[in-house]
UniProtKB/TrEMBL annotation:
SUPFAM superfamilies: P-loop containing nucleoside triphosphate hydrolases. InterPro entries: AAA+_ATPase, ATPase_dyneun-rel_AAA, P-loop_NTPase. It comes from the Bacteria. Residues 154-166 have a biased composition (Basic and acidic residues). This is MoxR-like ATPase. The lineage of its organism: Bacteria, Pseudomonadati, Pseudomonadota, Gammaproteobacteria, Chromatiales.
Length: 349
């Protein structure tokens, strides 16, 4: 990626998601470059809220690629990465046609065709990544929508062929929180990527990887161990904040740098005093949580939430902002019951 260390990528608003900014560091840039060169998945490790998922969307914008994501949960199966099959809808249609005792009318639309398995299969993220044109045709056939481009909220960029995200440039696939799934999900992902093809349920043709190889980014919050074979085939990037014990000043600088990149709107410009004071509070609470071994530690996400809340509650001078900051800081930073108990105990004393 031809961007410098510290580059701030704007992520346009889409739906209910507000405008965001992602600040690339040198390690993240190098990790993405390595994954692209090796054509291997990039596994992102790191504490919640550090920006793992956001990195994938930002990378798609920098690379001008389309973006597809799959949020994994305990019910996710390996086939969900390839396609999803709506058996319930097919059964309902069969029951309806049986009750009516008539076949759907229209040229070429026999009951058998209407109830074909393939008519209830929706493309999954790897289908889009392997062959966007075939996935688009299947989605249109079953009435499903195409993935929203990562720059959909930027009309000016979308109108510029030299800047917009386009399938011809390749695809960024985010497999989010893969540690929530059983081991067959990461293993199935590797199998599909290694083969470069798969056959969707109900189809007589394989989906074959064509064009630019996808950049597959995977995140984990370490809820369960990942298979060794899976780890060996991934590039792995450990996203870390500077140590609160050994490098608190570096942590403060990083937090303030990230906040300055995020809050650039005219009504959300954060001053140095607010950013520094909020960073001091975050560092103090993070240190206390680390010493007490309370997980998860308050981190970057909590810091940005705290600053955002202050800016939206008051646009007044630094003194007013600090007053609001002190009043609401505990709600953003002290999320463990033991932390609240310590505050209550100190208030009583």
């Amino acid at each position: 990626m031809q961007i410098p260390d510290g580059y701030a990528q704007e992520i346009p608003p889409v739906g209910n998601r507000p405008r965001q900014y992602h600040v690339f560091d040198a390690d993240s840039i190098a990790a993405i470059d390595a994954a692209l060169a090796a054509q291997r998945p990039l596994l992102l490790r790191g504490e919640p809220g550090i920006g793992k998922s956001q990195l994938a969307r930002a990378a798609a914008l920098v690379l001008r690629r389309v973006y597809v994501q799959q949020v994994v949960d305990a019910r996710t199966e390996s086939s969900d990465l390839l396609w999803s099959y709506d058996a319930v809808a097919r059964l309902a249609e069969a029951q309806l046609q049986g009750a009516l005792k008539v076949a759907p009318k229209g040229p070429g639309r026999s009951l058998r065709r209407r109830l074909a398995v393939g008519a209830y299969v929706t493309p999954g993220p790897l289908w889009w990544a392997f062959d966007w044109q075939s996935a688009s045709a299947q989605a249109q056939a079953v009435g499903a929508a195409e993935p929203v481009p990562p720059d959909a909220g930027d009309a000016q960029r979308r109108s510029d062929p030299e800047r917009r995200c386009d399938p011809s440039n390749g695809c960024v696939v985010l497999i989010d929180e893969i540690d929530k799934a059983e081991s067959d999900v990461p293993n199935g992902l590797l199998e599909a990527l290694g083969a470069g093809q798969f056959r969707p349920l109900g189809s007589e043709r394989d989906v074959v990887a064509t064009g630019v190889a996808p950049l597959v980014i995977i995140t984990t919050n370490e809820e369960r161990a990942l298979p060794d074979a899976f780890l060996r085939r991934c590039m792995v990037h450990h996203m870390r904040l500077p140590s609160v014990k050994h490098a608190p000043d570096a942590l403060k600088r990083l937090l303030m740098q990230r906040a300055k990149a995020h809050f650039v709107a005219p009504d959300e410009v954060a001053g140095e005093v607010l950013l520094e004071r909020a960073a001091d509070l975050l560092i103090a609470d993070r240190r206390a949580a680390e010493q007490a071994r309370r997980m998860p530690l308050p981190g970057q996400a909590e810091y940005l939430d705290l600053v955002r809340a202050v800016l939206r509650l008051t646009n007044e001078d630094a003194a007013a902002q600090e007053s609001v900051l002190n009043r609401i800081a505990d709600f953003a930073l002290k999320k463990h019951p033991d932390a609240i108990a310590e505050v209550t105990s100190s208030d009583v004393q």
